[in-house]
Amino acid sequence: MSNSMAILIQQLLGEHTKRGKLKVYLYYGDRTDDLMELTKYDRVLTTYTTLGSELNLESPMFRVAWWRVILDEAHMIKNSNAQQTRAVNKLIADRRNYWNTLVQRPVDHGDEFGLTRLPAVMATICLRRTKDKGLLGLPHKMMEICYIDHSAEERELYDRMEGEAKTVVRDYISSNRVANNYTTVLSIILRLRQICTDVDLCPKDLIASLPPINIEGLNGLIWRESRCTTKSDFTSLAFYFINILKNLTSV
């Protein structure tokens, strides 16, 4: 947070709050180390970088029993091993206990009640403007399907990735572990789509970890009018997985 950003925050608070009604403290730069000082305020604003720098210190931020912690731009802490992410996890918050008990823990264990609560909570707290709201005046969507030929490299890589994907998804389905590993399955589908767009989008370390494919044993390829498509049951497995998620997350 730069000085100009701090000034902007103060300005916005002045515009959107009534003077004297909300006490706000900017925990940034020259800041207090007094626990009781922070408890005098209704809101305390800080940055991920500031929290991360105090991870191993006796910071008052980690000793206050906060009512609720609000994380803006939370993609900044998507790496669970990053110092600032661990600092955020160290914060004490009363509402976090409810989230862990009613949503996070059930979702981690594939409990359908947790998967049902998650979209219900997100629909309540998230602002989502869809195209049908007409806020931007966007033209009607036009879809055009274009068939392209994969290069030999792209086709070989896609088939290797698809073979591994089918093995993983079938294992999850046969062991009834789809709900517990839905993020993995979505990641697999994403990688297949990335290869169709550009091989360079797929991480190199992931490509290197794939086993070699038996070219002579490949089947399911249909050549028609010089266009190559894949006749694969992975698509049906993906739709099967998506239907499971819809049933579990329907509100």
UniProtKB/TrEMBL annotation:
One of its GO terms (biological process) is DNA repair. This is SNF2 N-terminal domain-containing protein. The lineage of its organism: Eukaryota, Viridiplantae, Streptophyta, Embryophyta, Tracheophyta. Keywords: ATP-binding, Helicase, Hydrolase, Nucleotide-binding. Signal peptide: none annotated. One of its GO terms (cellular component) is nucleus. SUPFAM superfamilies: P-loop containing nucleoside triphosphate hydrolases (SSF52540). Residues 14-96 form the SNF2 N-terminal domain. One of its GO terms (molecular function) is helicase activity. It comes from Heracleum sosnowskyi. Transmembrane segments: none annotated.
